[in-house]
Design brief:
- This protein is 42% helix and 15% strand.
- It is built from ten helices and nine strands.
- The longest helix has 24 residues, at 84-107.
- The protein is globular and about 55 Å long.
- The protein starts with a strand and ends with a helix.
- The structure holds adenosine monophosphate (AMP) and manganese (II) ion (3 copies).
């Protein structure tokens, strides 16, 4: 079993690195990549935990990207996490995240939540505020009943707390991963509500930038969608990645490492990675 997409409380996951490693062992994972949003800080301690507990950990990250007015996520796998290209990219993303969080809190000031920014900050481990942190404050303040409601009413694109963020471009994100020796992967390609034509355009632009893989399996996904992504993957001669997108139990991701397995028809991205291990 392997899992190349999951989150800890270093970004918007609920669990510590220790708890994730416990789950990786219970769920019998041989290889795992932690892919926190725009954050590299968990990688080294997670690799060390893996060494202690005989689970192979590869480096990972999930970069937020602007592409044609859409927020797209690009996963990076098996890169040198100390390489200047990726660390520079992450410093830039972190700055944008802080600017955005302040702007979001300002945009939501009509809700009159005392110290919204500070409350969100207090929920983070690393100081980088994600939308789920702000959603949690809205829930704690009694304004929203659930994460879904907080996103639907306040945080998704078009809602009052949504703020455009100057994330890296697709090209910059893929380059930062590839120049650091890693593999770039389009995360959850069916989550962006792109038309078939737009999704093809995204994949073609991504390949032109040096991207090599797409997530054929992401979290809980119906078999017909997995087959659709497998065909897409093979059509474009890409490698297939697979991840739970686990954040917390019961959310839209599957439990850690328990996503469906990749169809036999695709070439797993792990083939590429294994050659380097
Ligand atoms: P951010 O990177 O700060 O924009 O936060 C994006 C994260 O919010 C995603 O990675 C998801 O984990 C989470 N998210 C997005 N939409 C929803 C939703 N409707 N309900 C709960 N969490 C969501
Ligand atoms: Mn997330
Ligand atoms: Mn994502
Ligand atoms: Mn994710």
């Amino acid at each position: 079993m392997l899992d190349f997409h999951c989150h800890s409380n270093y970004s918007d996951g609920a669990h510590s690195l220790d708890e994730l490693m416990d789950m990786a062992i219970v769920n019998n994972l041989a290889v795992i990549a932690l892919t926190d949003h725009d954050c590299l800080e968990g990688i080294e301690p997670f690799i060390q935990l893996g060494q202690q507990r005989q689970v192979k950990v590869i480096s990972g990250v999930e970069l937020s990207v602007n592409w044609k007015k859409k927020d797209i996520h690009i996963v990076g796998l098996n890169f040198d996490y100390k390489h200047a290209e990726i660390t520079k990219a992450i410093s830039y993303q972190s700055e944008q995240r802080i600017i955005r969080a302040k702007a979001m809190c300002e945009a939501l000031s009509f809700l009159k939540i005392p110290d919204l920014y500070q409350q969100a900050l207090d929920l983070t481990t690393t100081g980088y505020i994600t939308r789920p942190h702000i959603a949690q404050v809205l829930i704690n303040s009694g304004i929203c009943k659930s994460m879904d409601q907080a996103f639907d009413y306040y945080l998704k694109r078009g809602k009052p707390g949504y703020v455009h963020t100057a994330w890296l471009s697709l090209q910059q994100a893929v380059a930062a991963i590839v120049d650091s020796g890693g593999i770039a992967v389009i995360a959850h390609p069916l989550k962006y509500q792109l038309s078939a034509t737009k999704l093809n355009q995204l994949i073609e632009a991504f390949i032109a930038c040096g991207g090599k893989a797409i997530e054929v399996v992401s979290g809980r996904m119906p078999a017909n969608q997995i087959n659709q992504m497998a065909q897409k993957c093979n059509h474009y001669r890409l490698y297939a990645s697979s991840g739970s997108d686990f954040h917390r139990k019961g959310q839209y991701g599957s439990d850690l490492g328990l996503q469906s397995s990749l169809p036999e028809s695709v070439r797993s991205v792990y083939q590429l990675i294994r050659e380097e291990l």
